[in-house]
Write a sequence for this structure.
């Protein structure tokens, strides 16, 4: 199936990147990978020749993943994991189960596994609903946003102010007092438009709003609200905030444009409980030549509570595991340590990754490459990194060395932003 094939393609790119980094030693190597190529001095001009020396090894890995006994394995692992554990929001019992599941599965797989402790937020959604009461009765599909406060038990009933942007909210600030502000911002891109989900509640609270309903951050909708994290600004009153569907945001905007009054009743049982103990799950294959140096692959184990988290980010977690499995299955020994980290509480603002950084920042120069897959495991379309943006030429050159099967397609690249490829 397409999905399975591309899982393996992305997986192969993980592995190939690992090989590249492994072959680019900090000191001239005495020998290369145990199945490896000829020794090469560590000069940029020799990278192409050195990479070519790994063609056979890369083919072995790709063949095992795409055509061999490991064919579809990462897909089966993903299906078993998500079917067994289900959703795994930060602080939940299910996230604990997910960590135990992966610890046990990767240990059984023969990898060297350990856990690193992290304190993580525990937000619970509770029951939630919204209804438009005036000018007519209509249920609104909503999803409260992570970290939102709840409403009083009887809900909040208030007139609605619909705006399309933060600028419009500022211009109409005097109309916002005591109202539920509905943001009907058009979708530009996730990176740009998500500001409304993250900061909409605080911006509306600054002008006296009692709650916010925010158009879901997506270009497509089948009356489907999205959730995600939001941030309250310090010193600003915390008001309940939820996403609504594109359809309902547009509906209320059209009604408002006609000068009609809109009244909505919003009820949310959301609460933030004390932080809980959790873990980043770490598995690795020690490098034979530079065990202290690390190539890190990652995905996150937590998800939101209203789905299975198969693509966000079960897929990223599984290919990060599978990469190590394939290297192990082939009996390859990397020069540097290949490490997979499955983050906890990524959706709450990268809490697990931040804690990992805090633990390891004294040792940063030993990390040669750090990758996270968290945009779905379909065809590759995005590689981004501030470091890559600074080193446009070498990055593009480097990508040209990838095997044809996993060559990125530059058509999707944003103009002038070499850090993005597709
Ligand atoms: Zn994610």
């Amino acid at each position: 199936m397409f999905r399975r094939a591309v899982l393996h393609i992305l997986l192969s790119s993980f592995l190939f990147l690992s090989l590249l980094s492994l072959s680019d030693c900090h000191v001239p190597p005495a020998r290369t990978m145990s199945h490896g190529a000829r020794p090469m001095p560590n000069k940029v001009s020799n990278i192409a020749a050195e990479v070519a020396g790994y063609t056979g090894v890369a083919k072995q890995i790709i063949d095992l993943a795409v055509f061999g006994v490991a064919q579809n394995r990462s897909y089966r692992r993903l299906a078993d994991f998500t079917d067994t554990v289900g959703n795994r929001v930060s602080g939940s019992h299910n996230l604990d189960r997910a960590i135990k599941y992966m610890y046990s599965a990767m240990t059984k797989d023969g990898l060297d596994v350990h856990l690193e402790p992290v304190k993580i937020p525990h937000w619970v959604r509770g029951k939630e609903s919204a209804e438009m009461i005036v000018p007519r009765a209509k249920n609104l599909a909503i999803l409260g946003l992570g970290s939102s406060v709840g409403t009083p038990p009887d809900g909040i009933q208030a007139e609605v102010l619909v705006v399309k942007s933060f600028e419009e909210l500022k211009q109409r600030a005097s109309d916002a007092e005591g109202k539920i502000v509905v943001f009907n911002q058009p979708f530009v891109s996730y990176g740009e438009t998500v500001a409304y989900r993250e900061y909409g509640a605080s911006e509306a609270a600054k002008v006296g709003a009692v709650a916010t309903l925010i158009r879901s951050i997506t270009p497509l909708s089948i009356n489907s609200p999205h959730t995600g994290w939001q941030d309250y600004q310090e010193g600003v009153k915390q008001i309940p905030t939820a996403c609504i569907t594109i359809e309902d945001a547009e509906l209320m905007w059209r009604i408002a444009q006609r000068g009609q009054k809109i009244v909505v009743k919003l009820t949310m049982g959301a609460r933030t409980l004390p932080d809980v103990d959790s873990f980043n799950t770490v598995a690795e294959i020690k490098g034979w030549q530079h065990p202290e140096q690390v190539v890190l692959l990652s995905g996150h184990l937590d998800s939101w509570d209203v789905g299975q988290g198969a693509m966000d980010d079960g897929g990223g977690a599984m290919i990060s595991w599978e990469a190590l499995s394939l290297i192990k299955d082939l009996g390859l020994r990397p020069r540097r340590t290949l490490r997979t980290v499955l983050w906890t509480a990524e959706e709450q603002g990268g809490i697990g990754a931040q804690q990992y950084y805090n633990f390891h920042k004294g040792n940063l120069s030993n990390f040669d490459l750090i990758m996270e897959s968290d945009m779905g495991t379909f065809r590759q379309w995005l590689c981004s990194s501030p470091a890559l943006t600074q080193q446009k030429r070498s990055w593009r050159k480097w990508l040209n060395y990838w095997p044809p099967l996993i060559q990125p397609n530059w058509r999707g690249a944003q103009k002038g932003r070499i850090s993005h490829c597709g």
